[in-house]
Design goal:
Keywords: ATP synthesis, ATP-binding, CF(1), Hydrogen ion transport, Ion transport, Membrane, Mitochondrion, Mitochondrion inner membrane, Nucleotide-binding, Transport. The protein has 454 residues and is of the alpha/beta class. The protein has two domains: 5-278, P-loop containing nucleotide triphosphate hydrolases (Rossmann fold), CATH 3.40.50; 284-449, ATP synthase alpha/beta chain, C-terminal domain (Lysin). The protein contains 16 helices and eight strands.
């Protein structure tokens, strides 16, 4: 079924003939139990700087994408699918490939066709399955489509492989279920939804899990999408899904129209379990990023009322504006994790502080083209999770602590206790130190972008 577009019953609708192979699976199955599960510890890279640094996602996690219409919810999902292209090419075994299932619920046929074209041009259809229950399909098919897509993703999960499933969006599934329930004369509840609408989504999202080693160590990661009305996250369906999932990425219309894209509200977005799967290098580099952005938002709200600002406040505003600018990213251009680490390192440590805001993107491109290739290769090695503990004789010596390259130093993490985690942490610190040496040279690029600068 990879590379095909099917309906809620698994029948192809892409005009490329019938499926070559058939396997019947139950659409509604019981979610894995507690003993069959394992804690989330493997990263699932989205290719978005704002997500991988601030709200990291792990394999087996359920991360909600919530926001008003036309705020970029589907764009985040598509970028995540496109980012798996390079990662899957580097995979050395079938168990390292991440397969993607995209479930379109209640969308226009033209929107689904546009999505197929985007994935096809990026050669991403070869590891993807599209399940479409469009707006013209009956309500029972829109209700059934997420469960059918989940059954396809469970095939990979139960066979020791990894899969990502995107439900776009569950608000329309709830509306379809409300239509069916009202026609069946079931008593309506809050917002006319039936009383079991919570069970509708909980039994679906609980099927996304990371399996234990005894049951194959496969995983199914879920990215459900919920559309809000006028930013009301306290409505019935949004609060239900927020309570079920392991975190949420909140998108705001105001940020979108201000040109901050992806329009992620860092203060409301959270990842409850994904930080355990975040790479050590990324965790070390962006340790103070969320705090600085929070302080920037707080100070910026008061700075507009007065012009007399002390030097510390002005520096905070200056740094926060550049951190916000560095997290912007064009659509359909996911960035490898090793390049994300370098860019965020440069921003957090003050190398962009004297750059004009409109030159930040140019500085980022020049930095990535100037940095040593050996550094990128060393950071690429951290993408793979080190699972075996090395003997004491083979343990590499930990490099010296990296020096501060700007106004703030890289935050130091508490050294992990396990031997298996000390190795990537030591490599991360060495890579961070080498990044600092490279960035001292790259700092002169700012003079090319701003010849009249200080």
């Amino acid at each position: 079924m990879l590379g095909r577009v099917v309906d809620a019953l698994g029948v192809p609708i892409d005009g490329r003939g019938a499926l070559s192979d058939h396997e019947r699976r139950r659409v509604e199955v019981k979610a894995p139990g507690i003993i069959e599960r394992k804690s989330v510890h493997e990263p699932m890279q989205t290719g978005l700087k704002a997500v991988d640094s601030l709200v990291p996602i792990g394999r087996g996690q359920r991360e909600l994408i919530i926001g008003d219409r036309q705020t970029g919810k589907t764009a985040i999902a598509i970028d995540t699918i496109l980012n798996q292209k390079q990662l899957n090419l580097k995979a050395t075994s079938e168990s390292e490939i991440l397969y993607c299932v995209y479930v379109a619920i209640g969308q226009k046929r033209s929107t689904v066709a546009q999505l197929v074209q985007i994935l096809s041009e990026a050669n991403a259809l070869e590891y993807s399955i599209l399940v479409a229950a469009t707006a013209s399909d009956p309500a029972p098919l829109q209700f059934l489509a997420p469960y059918s897509g989940c059954a396809m993703g469970e095939y990979f999960r139960d066979n020791g492989m990894h899969a990502l499933i995107i439900y776009d969006d569950l608000s329309k599934q709830a509306v379809a279920y409300r239509q069916m329930s009202l026609l069946l004369r079931r008593p309506p509840g809050r917002e006319a939804f039936p009383g079991d609408v919570f069970y509708l989504h909980s039994r679906l999202l609980e099927r996304a899990a990371k399996r234990s080693d005894q049951t194959g160590a496969g995983s199914l990661t879920a990215l459900p999408v919920i559309e809000t009305q006028a930013g009301d996250v306290s409505a019935y369906i949004p609060t239900n899904v927020i309570s079920i999932t392991d975190g949420q990425i909140c998108l705001e219309t105001e940020l979108f129209y201000r040109g901050i894209r992806p329009a992620i509200n860092v203060g409301l977005s959270v990842s409850r379990v994904g930080s355990a799967a975040q790479l050590k290098a990324m965790k070390q580099v962006c340790g103070s990023l969320k705090l600085e952005l929070a302080q920037y938002r707080e100070v910026a709200a008061f700075a507009q009322f007065g012009s007399d600002l002390d030097a510390a406040t002005q520096a905070l505003l200056n740094r926060g504006a550049r951190l916000t600018e560095i997290l912007k990213q064009p659509q359909y251009t996911p960035l490898p994790i090793e390049k994300q680490i370098l860019v965020i390192y440069a921003a957090v440590n003050g190398f962009c502080d004297r750059m004009p805001l409109d030159k930040i993107s140019q500085y980022e491109k020049m930095l990535l083209s100037t940095v040593k290739p050996e550094l990128l290769e060393s950071l690429k090695g951290l993408v793979h999770i080190y699972q075996g503990a090395a003997p004491a004789a083979e343990m590499p010596q930990e490099p010296p602590q990296p020096q501060s390259m700007g106004t703030s130093a890289v935050p130091q993490q508490t050294p992990p206790r396990s031997t298996a985690e000390e190795i990537p942490l030591a490599v991360a610190r060495g890579a961070a130190q080498e990044a600092g040496e490279s960035l001292w040279q790259a700092r002169y690029l700012s003079e090319l972008c701003d010849p009249g600068g200080d």
